[in-house]
Amino acid sequence: MKAFQTAVAAAAIFGTTAYAIDIKINDQESIKHAAASAAFNTMGNYTGNETGQIPGAFPTKWWEGAALFESMITYWHYTKDASNNAAVRQGMNWQRGDNNDFMPANYSAYIGNDDQLAWGSAALTAAELNFLQDKGVPTWLEMAENVFNDEIKRWDPRTCGGGLRWQIFPYQAGYAQKNAATNGKLFQLAARLAHFTGNETYVDVANQAWDWSIKSHLLNTETWSVVDTINSGKNCSLSGDVWSRNYGPYMSGAAVMYNVTNGDQKWKTGLVGLVNSTISTFFPSKYGGNILSEVNCEAKNNCDSNQKALKGMLALDLAATVRAAPLTVFRIWPKLQGSAVAAAKQCTGGNTHTVCGGRWYEPKWDGSDAFEDQLAATNIFVANLAVPKPGSGRH
User: pLDDT for 175-213, tens place per residue?
Assistant: First the structure.
């Protein structure tokens, strides 16, 4: 049996009907209802807690388990709806592996560094938000630190002056690439561990990853754009398209380091630059400037399943940025609000008229019922609960 509520019960938690999402963006209970509806549809795609299935497993996209569980942990924290917690805890612990570092034997042959870091991020979110752990197993913090320790051992100064490779093993396609998704996640994890533990080792690694990203030109400090990848087999040349997943970790990590260092100018400059670049890139003026879009594929209607999930991850990173660095609230808050209102208009599909599409700038459901679109919608609603409002004093 599944551990989460029925669609009607999900809506009933917040005293509203189960059909369509009519969001009042300045009403916390209305946002919670929207989040509950989207979370229900998201978890409806998860079968790991059913008899005969493998908890936490998304066989062809293992990292999506981490993205799902991190989303549901954050959802629980800001709504207090614990109906998914048992499934999340089961899945996280099932995938932690023999060494408690999210390198399970069933997947270790093809796990990438970015995949493992995604699970480390989910574990650290569980620690930060005090998500209950089972007895007799390592803490969420210990698991996140184990991931960090694995990753930093793979830092490769032999090519391109440093950095992490995208893939772990030479036989994997993409081993030659040192990409922003991986190195940004290492930076973000180190920054968050520094904030959570006070350990200077994490501060040092955050600086190391950041400085290398600039030196290698993954991060452009003139435009604060983020390049997708460096190819160590082709003279460290830059290539790739613009993706939101590359901006969020660097931006939110810079916000955390700004917090850790009590406003050091290095981090303020990077933070402000990345916030401005992220907003100008992923909130296109042609859609009004307040609606989040995965610009490289949405307009062409050719986002693959991975790409559909990315902007939802950015939404959570935007909220995390404000929590760590409240000076960004007036830039970010209207963008999250506008995106949530737009996303709600997309959540009118399926038999329940609550299934969410992916092109939020369109005024009605675009026909997509993909798991990743439901996850992205959940995240934009939760981000509006997670971001401190201007003058609220809530962090």
Answer: 999 999 999 999 999 999 999 999 999 999 999 999 999
Distance CA 16, CA 11 (A): 5
Domain tally, the chain: 1
**Residue 354 backbone phi and psi in degrees, to 5:** -130, 0
Tell me which amino acid residue 275 is: V
Calpha distance 174→237 (Å, rounded): 14
Query: Is position 7 within any domain?
Result: no
Considering the domain boundaries, does residue 110 fall inside one? yes
pLDDT, tens digit (0-9, with 9 covering 90-100), for 253-308:
999 999 999 999 999 999 999 999 999 999 999 999 999 999 999 999 999 999 99
Tokens of 45: 């795609």
Domain assignment of residue 339, yes or no: no
303 secondary structure, DSSP code: -
Enclosing domain of residue 126:
27-154
Question: What is the distance between the alpha carbons of residues 386 and 393, in angstroms, rounded to a whole number?
Answer: 13
Report CA-CA distances (Å) from 28 to 78, 340, 359, 383: 10, 12, 24, 12
CB 367 within 8 A of CB 349: yes
**How many Å apart are CA 382 and CA 210, to the nearest integer?**
28
pTM above 0.90, yes or no: yes
Cα 237 to its chain centre, rounded Å, is 27
Cα distance between residue 190 and residue 207, in whole Å: 9
Handedness of CA 365, 64, 333, 85 (dihedral sign): positive
Q: Could you give the angle at the alpha carbon of 62 between the alpha carbons of 4 and 190, nearest 5°?
A: 95
Residues in the chain: 395
CA-based nearest residue to 65, from 40, 96, 37: 96
Summarised one tens digit per residue, pLDDT across range 98-127 is 999 999 998 888 899 999 999 999 999 999
The whole-number pLDDT of residue 369 equals 97
| Residues with Cβ within 8 Å of residue 95, at least 6 apart in sequence | 55, 56, 57, 62, 65, 102, 104, 119
Q: pLDDT digit string (tens) for 20-59?
A: 788 999 999 999 999 999 999 999 999 999 999 999 998 7
DSSP-assigned beta bridge partners for residue 356: 347
